[in-house]
Amino acid sequence: MSVPERPRAVQVAAQAKINLRLRILAREATGYHQIETIFHRIALADVVRVRRTGGERSLDITGDVDMSALGPTERNLAWRAAELYLSTTGMSGGLAIEIDKHIPIGGGLGGGSADAGAVLRALDAMAERPLGEAQLIRLAAVLGSDVPFLASEHAFALAWGRGERMLALSPPPMRDVRLLLPPFAVNTGEAYGWIAADRERANATWDALVLHPLQFEGWDSLARIAINDFETPVVRRHPAIAHALTAQRGDASVQLAMLSGSGSSMFAIGRGDVLLGAGRAIDDAGMRSVMTRTILRVEPPTRIE
Fold first, then answer.
1. Residue 1 above 50 pLDDT?
2. What letter would DSSP give residue 68?
3. How much is the CA Rg of the chain, to the nearest whole Å?
4. Which of 27-41, 44-58, 127-141, 187-201 has the lowest mean pLDDT?
5. What is the mean pLDDT of the segment spanning 186-192?
6. Neighbours of 303 (CB within 10 A)
7. What are the start-end ranges of the H helices in the chain?
8. In 10 A of CB 277, how many CB atoms?
9. How far is 135 from 151, CA to CA, in rounded Å?
């Protein structure tokens, strides 16, 4: 029986993520922080296409986001993911990576990490000897704490360590999500520094909570354990975020409203089938509102050549 030829080009939906719980734990000697988080993928996604070529390696990014926020190619997470995969596996030849951006850059929605995870999944789909998901997740941890989840096939998961230790969970029922996008970003490195400074001044760390499987089964129980350690230091420095979160939490159609990752984006989860408009308070702050939803499954890479 003949073995099907591996694809030469694939397309992946690089979905954004939100954190329903995000605790920042100990800092390692390497500079990385240990985390405990509940990840959930949402429908908002970049489109990533990867093609094997006989020539050089290239990265082309287009989209309806602030392209000026992109750094140099060699620092781009998708590019670094490709370089890491090729050096680890010995895969030879050229690559053409195309990314159509829809996830805001630097907003705490994991856009760069989603692109990196998509590139890893794409390359593994094209490889003669695929690494498989478990090895791909370990490789992804080198790139950042969001990348392992976004390189996985999970829609909903509890993760800790550097994000590479992961427990896949059955996602709660699909819900509408309203994203609130301020006209500014929050630097993740600075946000970690704010947390460290606050804890040093207060001579405090974090409170431990033993999580139970029943707490992940529905939105009511998830809302009770929802917390983001970045929120306090970020809202202190950005009153517009504090104002927007207060407005969302006062909306009867919203069950859960939180900062997304280290910000600046926020998300609101609808209560049941109804999620009302963002409201005048949000419009006055100059924020953009984007409607999306949580997802129940992750689509595999699609062969296009």
1. no
2. G
3. 19
4. 27-41
5. 87
6. 14
7. 77-89, 111-126, 133-140, 147-150, 188-202, 219-225, 231-237, 239-249, 280-284
8. 12
9. 10
Distances (CA, A) of 117 to 2, 32, 71, 78, 161: 30, 19, 18, 8, 18
3-class state of residue 271 by DSSP: strand
Q: For 239-251, write each residue's pLDDT tens digit.
A: 999 999 998 998 8
Token representation of residue 50: 């990867």
Question: What is the pLDDT at residue 302?
Answer: 95
Q: Which two tokens stand for residue 54?
A: 């006989």
124: annotated active-site residue: no
User: How far is the C-alpha of 255 from the C-alpha of 79, rounded, in Å?
Assistant: 38
**33-53 and 94-101 as β-strands: parallel, antiparallel, unpaired?**
antiparallel
Give me the phi and psi of 302, to 5 degrees please. Answer: -105, 130
Is residue 46 part of the annotated active site? The answer reads no
Q: Give the largest CA-CA distance in the chain.
A: 67
297 SS3 class: coil
Query: CA-to-CA distance for 47 and 11, rounded, in angstroms?
Result: 7
Element (H, E) at 12: strand 9-27
With contact defined as beta carbons under 8 Å apart, do 151 and 121 qualify? yes
Q: What is the 3-state secondary structure (H, E, C) of 207-234?
A: CCCCCCHHHHCCHHHHHHHCEECCHHHH
**For the chain, what's the residue count?**
305
Q: Find all residues with CB under 8 Å of 301, minimum gap 6, and list them.
A: 10, 11, 12, 121, 122, 125
Q: For 204, which DSSP code?
A: -
Who's near 188: CB < 8 A, 6+ residues apart?
108, 261, 262
The one catalytic residue in 146, 176, 229, 251 is: 146
